[in-house]
Specification:
The chain is α/β, with parallel strands linked by helices. The protein has one domain: Ribosomal Protein S5, domain 2. The protein has three helices and five strands, in the order βαβββαβα. A five-stranded mixed β-sheet has the order 1-4-5-3-2, sandwiched between helices. Helix 2 links the parallel strand 4 and strand 5. Helix 2 packs across helix 3. The N and C termini lie far apart (about 45 Å). The mean pLDDT is about 85.
Length: about 130
């Protein structure tokens, strides 16, 4: 470390672990899902883990029905930020989540309402059907 480089930022939160492989998205799709006004949330507990207590992983997707590339990226950015704020508190360890953007809803919904939708969806996913 040189004298000119700033000290490492220890106050910064760890980034979410992100799903990138198609097989992971397909595996989560076979789990449970819930539809809210601003997004669809899919979830599945990871199976066959040698270690337990691993942090939740998240994935984001929007189909072409959402709009052109600019619209899809904007919707995914909003979902990414909502997940960053909520998954650490409302997600469970050893679970994978996929957030799916909806046409004319994810991008146009008031962000505080989108946060409420996702928070409520995560609570409902874990309340009854997913144990």
């Amino acid at each position: 470390m040189s004298a000119l480089s700033p000290p490492p930022d220890t106050t910064r939160e760890k980034k979410l672990s992100v799903l990138k492989k198609r097989r992971d998205f397909l595996r989560v799709a076979s789990g449970v899902s819930i539809r809210k006004r601003g997004a669809i949330i899919q979830a599945r507990k990871r199976q066959g883990l040698e270690q337990t207590g691993l942090p939740p992983r998240v994935g984001f997707t929007c189909s072409r029905k959402v709009g052109n590339a600019v619209d899809r990226n904007f919707a995914k950015r909003r979902l990414r930020e909502a997940a960053r704020l909520l998954v650490k508190d409302h997600g469970k360890a050893d679970w994978d989540y996929v957030f799916i953007g909806l046409r004319d809803k994810t991008a146009n919904r008031v962000f505080s309402d989108l946060l409420c939708d996702i928070e409520q969806g995560l609570k409902e996913l874990h309340a009854g059907q997913c144990k």
